[in-house]
UniProtKB/TrEMBL annotation:
PANTHER family in UniProt: BLL6575 PROTEIN (PTHR35525:SF3)
Zinc finger CGNR domain: residues covered: 167-210
One Pfam entry name: zf-CGNR
Superkingdom classification of source: Bacteria
Organism: Pararhodospirillum photometricum DSM 122
InterPro entries listed in its UniProt record: ABATE (IPR010852), ABATE_dom_sf (IPR023286), Znf_CGNR (IPR021005)
Record protein name field: Zinc finger CGNR domain-containing protein
């Protein structure tokens, strides 16, 4: 392999920076996690399902945080995470959700959340290195988990502080409210996914119309 910083470990091999979702044969099905929020920073809060009704933390099961980092394309292999690292991942998740929710509500951003996001983003991120033998681009970091969190935080900063901020939305399905980036030309998207919440909402509206137009006996 080509040179790199002493002690640095591979994060991932890719033509683009870390953060592109991947799915591994033999791992749990991709349905365990959702990577369709439109941005890496919004995929992390999606690990809490039904946040507004009956929250379910999909990172609560053993090994789930490590699997999420791998499937998000942030680390090269499944790495054992310490309890402190898992806690840090969840704290970053809630920080991003808090800030995005404030943006959606056009409310002031909580200073504590802003400070924490800035602090995580300031940590070292993976650096690109070219492997001489294979001419493969390899991203390396001395601490892959810390670098993964910094990568997520920097994506959140770019999203929250950039021109795409008005496109941050929450799913219109009351029991979902998953965050997503509205990339539609009209910026009128309402659902996290048409296949999921969109079809449910339309089906419910259709049944209600049928009920309203059915003569009472």
């Amino acid at each position: 392999m080509g040179g790199g910083e002493s002690g640095a470990r591979p994060v991932c091999r890719a033509l683009t920076a870390p953060g592109k979702p991947v799915f591994l044969v033999g791992m749990k099905t991709p349905q365990e996690f959702r990577f369709n929020a439109g941005r890496l920073a919004l995929d992390l809060p999606a690990t809490v399902r039904r946040r507004a009704s009956t929250p379910m933390d999909v990172l609560a099961s053993p090994g789930a945080p490590a699997r999420w980092l791998r499937e998000a394309g942030l680390v090269a292999e499944l790495l054992p995470l310490s309890e402190a690292q898992e806690t840090a991942l969840r704290r970053l998740r809630e920080t991003i959700w808090t800030l995005a929710d404030a943006v959606i509500r056009d409310a002031a951003l909580p200073s504590e959340a802003v400070d924490h996001l800035n602090a995580v983003a300031a940590r070292p991120v993976p650096i690109p290195q070219l492997e001489a033998a294979s001419l493969t681009l390899c991203w390396r970091a001395a601490d892959p988990v810390e670098a993964a969190l910094a990568t997520i935080a920097r994506d959140a900063l770019d999203l929250l502080g950039g021109p795409l901020r008005p496109r941050i939305k929450a799913c219109g399905q009351p029991d979902c409210q998953m965050l997503f980036l509205d990339t539609s030309p009209s910026v009128r998207r309402r659902w996290c996914s048409m296949d999921r919440c969109g079809s449910r909402a339309k089906g419910g509206a259709f049944r209600q119309r049928q009920k309203d137009t059915t003569p009472s006996s």
